[in-house]
Backbone:
């Protein structure tokens, strides 16, 4: 992450509990190092255990990511970042319109029949991912359903 990217990202991150007067043990690693490690993992498609030695230990990075995910901080960070991008482009922070689309994906035999369905339009037996974006193409939400669920019902 460049210094410019970090300057824009840092104010959007949640403040650790120790810095908000809630007490607790201070965090051992810098948020920038953790975000760099997570970005590297996603960009290169590696496994957690294959994290290079330049980053904090993989188990600490995973624990950091898991804690953020469980407390919905990843989602909160995404919403803050999207609002900042929209404001920079002269739009309201919160979108007033969205576009939904879906993609049917064949499911393997190991996928339970209760989570699969048949999409008659695409002739696919599997699951469907529904994605909602705003008019700028920024992600608002994602949901995975059985393939027989239409966009209207998923919305």
Residues:
């Amino acid at each position: 992450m460049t210094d410019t990217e970090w300057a824009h990202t840092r104010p959007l991150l949640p403040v650790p509990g120790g810095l908000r007067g809630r007490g607790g043990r201070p965090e051992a690693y810098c948020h920038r190092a953790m975000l760099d490690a997570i970005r590297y993992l996603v960009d290169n498609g590696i496994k957690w255990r294959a994290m290079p030695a330049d980053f904090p230990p993989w188990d600490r990075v995973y624990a950091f990511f898991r804690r953020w995910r469980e407390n919905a901080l990843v989602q909160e960070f995404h919403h803050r970042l999207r609002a900042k991008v929209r404001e920079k482009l002269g739009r309201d922070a919160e979108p007033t319109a969205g576009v939904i689309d879906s993609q049917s994906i064949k499911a393997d035999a190991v996928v339970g029949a209760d989570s699969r369905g048949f999409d008659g339009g695409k002739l696919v037996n599997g699951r469907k991912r529904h994605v909602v974006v705003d008019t700028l193409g920024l992600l608002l939400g994602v949901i995975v359903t059985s393939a027989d669920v239409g966009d209207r019902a998923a919305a």
